[in-house]
Amino acid sequence: MGGCHAAGKRQRAITREQALAALADGIRACIHCRPDTELGGL
């Protein structure tokens, strides 16, 4: 979602569609910022 304190320098922007596809493919969401909840991927 951007701005996660746990990401450090390991972050890069992706589209909403890419994020939802990654979640659908089994990539685990960050337990700190919970982008799956923000994106409605639950």
TrEMBL record:
Q: Which InterPro entries match?
A: DUF6233
Give the highest taxon in the source lineage.
Answer: Bacteria
The entry's protein name is DUF6233 domain-containing protein
Question: What is the protein's species of origin?
Answer: Streptomyces sp. 900116325
